[in-house]
Each structure stands twice: as structure tokens, then as C-alpha cells.
Automatic annotation (TrEMBL):
Coiled-coil stretches noted in the UniProt entry, renumbered to this chain: none
PANTHER family: SELENOPROTEIN DOMAIN PROTEIN (AFU_ORTHOLOGUE AFUA_1G05220)
Keyword Ribosomal protein applies: no
Organism: Methylorubrum suomiense
Lineage: Bacteria, Pseudomonadati, Pseudomonadota, Alphaproteobacteria, Hyphomicrobiales
Keywords (A to Z) from UniProt: Redox-active center
InterPro entries, alphabetized: Selenoprotein_Rdx-typ (IPR011893), Thioredoxin-like_sf (IPR036249)
Protein name: Selenoprotein W-related protein
């Protein structure tokens, strides 16, 4: 089959990549996958990819375009989904309203 066939995926402008590195020894795959799903649901038209990267040694880190936006040890545990979505939004489109996620933050 020719590589330039009609079945090829059309090229699109490059969209940002999120990488979630998780510890396989700690069995954090489900947590990482759940966070990936939440990001893909919320930012479906804004993200090009959410990758899950297995690692060891208790690591849990989330990067957006190579910038660490969450690191388990540095940031004190795991992010709640609201915080994670806000950190991604703040880098992708700071003026974007996240609906109920933002309204809940403004009540406190």
C-alpha cells in the first residue's frame, strides 16, 4: 500500500501535547488514565495528544508541551481534577471559562 494513499490522516496544525508520567510499581495507571480522559473531554478541540508514560520510583508528573504543570512530590500529592483543568487552561487559553469548575473556585 502506498504511503501517500487517500487513507492518510490529513495534516492539521500542531496542537499541544500533555504527558502524564505515572509509577507502575505504585499502580497509578488508572489514576493517570482517568486524568487523561478528563483532559481530553474538557479540551477535546485544543489538545493534540495526551500520552501515558509508565515509569517507576513513585513518580507522578504531568507536563504540557514539556513544562511540568504538576509533580506529585513538589506539589504535595495528586491534583484534583479542578486544579489540573485550571492549570491546563491557564496555559492554553487563560480567558476560557471552565463553567462549573471556575464558579466553584470563585465561591471560596
Amino acid at each position: 500500500m502506498d504511503e501517500a494513499s487517500d487513507d492518510a490522516i490529513p495534516s492539521r496544525p500542531t496542537r499541544p501535547r500533555v504527558a502524564i508520567t505515572y509509577c507502575t510499581q505504585c499502580q497509578w495507571l488508572l489514576r493517570a488514565a482517568w486524568m487523561a480522559q478528563e483532559l481530553l473531554s474538557t479540551f477535546r478541540d485544543d489538545l493534540g495528544e495526551v500520552a501515558l508514560r509508565p515509569a517507576t520510583g513513585g513518580v507522578f508528573a504531568i507536563e504540557l508541551e514539556g513544562e511540568t504543570i504538576w509533580e506529585r512530590v513538589r506539589d504535595g500529592g495528586f491534583p484534583d481534577v479542578k486544579t489540573l483543568k485550571q492549570r491546563v487552561r491557564d496555559r492554553l487559553d487563560p480567558s476560557r471559562d471552565l463553567g462549573h469548575v471556575d464558579r466553584a473556585a470563585h465561591r471560596s
